[in-house]
Amino acid sequence: MPPGPIPFIDLKRLLAHIRTDVIADWTACLDNTEFVGGPRVAAVEKKLAAALSVPIVVSCANGTDALLVALQAIGVKRGMKVALPNLTFWATFEAVVQLGAVPVLVDIDPDDLHVSLEELRSAHDAHRFDALMLVHLFGWTSARLLEIRAFCKERDVAIVEDGAQCFGVEAFGKPVLAEAGVATLSFYPAKVVGGAMDGGAITMQSKEHETFLRSLCNHGRSDHYSYAHVGWNSRMGGLQAAFLLRVLEHVPAILESRRSAAAWYRERITSDATLAKRVRVFGPPAGIVENGYLNVLTIDGKRGQEVVDALKVKGVGAARTYPETMDVQPPAKAAGAIVHGDLRHSKAFCEKVVNLPLFYGIRDDERETALAALTSVL
Ligand SMILES: Cc1ncc(COP(=O)(O)O)c(C=O)c1O
Fold this sequence. Notes:
Blueprint: H1 12-31, H2 39-52, E1 56-60, H3 63-73, E2 81-85, H4 90-98, E3 102-106, H5 117-127, E4 131-135, H6 145-155, E5 158-162, E6 170-171, E7 174-175, E8 182-186, E9 200-204, H7 207-216, E10 221-223, E11 226-227, H8 238-248, H9 251-271, H10 273-278, E12 279-281, E13 288-289, E14 297-299, H11 304-313, H12 330-334, E15 338-339, H13 344-352, H14 364-377
Parallel strand pairs: 2-3, 2-4, 3-15, 4-5, 5-8
Antiparallel strand pairs: 1-9, 6-7, 6-13, 8-9, 10-11, 12-14
Helix pairs in contact: 1-8, 2-8, 3-4
The structure holds pyridoxal-5'-phosphate.
Pyridoxal-5'-phosphate is lined by residues 62-64, 88-89, 91-92, 135, 162, 164-165, 186, 188, 198, 200.
């Protein structure tokens, strides 16, 4: 029997495995009034640290807050310049602007789709930015990750790594954030490790950062009614932590399912003469193991939106991550964003990008149908 409409993402596939345990855990949270913080939040932080090979993880309310506090931890202040790729989620840009800092928009490498080291170099020569938002997108990271980190060290540029999409990505034999000074995670439900509501975390190497970030996420407290900083309220609760702990038990299966689906699409597209002629399917550079977060492709002679619309008519949910760059968003001008160069690679990619359905538990027949629909649309 052919499958019905194929969603872009179906979170129920994982829920089916954890539902009974989550309901029991949530009952225990209610019985213990474990609402904000608590032992399950501490347990999630520990589990995340082990999974990511980092010494310290501090949880918070969402991935955007994580960026806001992480930028403060590396010393970003009003008026400073912070470079970021022109291709990212808007939250990366927002966090910089919310702190009164000035975004410097830098183009991407057209092959790995991450910030271009050459453009970063020339942007620093031209604008002397103080910090970099190094974003790991699509389920992999830059081929030049280590060189970018080394370049920033050499130029005394502080880094926050936006790891909202990169749980499970490995770079050169280690979890990608293992050596990040300060990095962030998002547990938005559609992420590889998704929560039951918004959630986030910051990873770090030093105790000093931990003390500062725990305080910042809790009103800048030094004691219950004493304050060391003007902070923020960004805390995780027991219900979310209980859910995440159950999701974390399934990480090997989640990664296996997503990685094999991402590889399947790549294999099938590149080995099909008709598709291979017109479809470019992106993937992790050498040395990087993807987490299977997204299928990413562009099609010669087609705008991404027309492909997504045509797929929708055929019952296949597709998406466009991302349909527009940072520089064209109306608030970017008002925020005084500095545009470095012509940004042509990020703009060209956004016009064409298409993502086919890819989620934990996607079935072979669903992928076959999605690919058949794509073939018929070309
Ligand atoms: C690259 C990137 N940065 C930041 C965020 C913000 O995370 P959140 O939605 O948890 O605030 C997201 C995801 O939503 C993201 O994909």
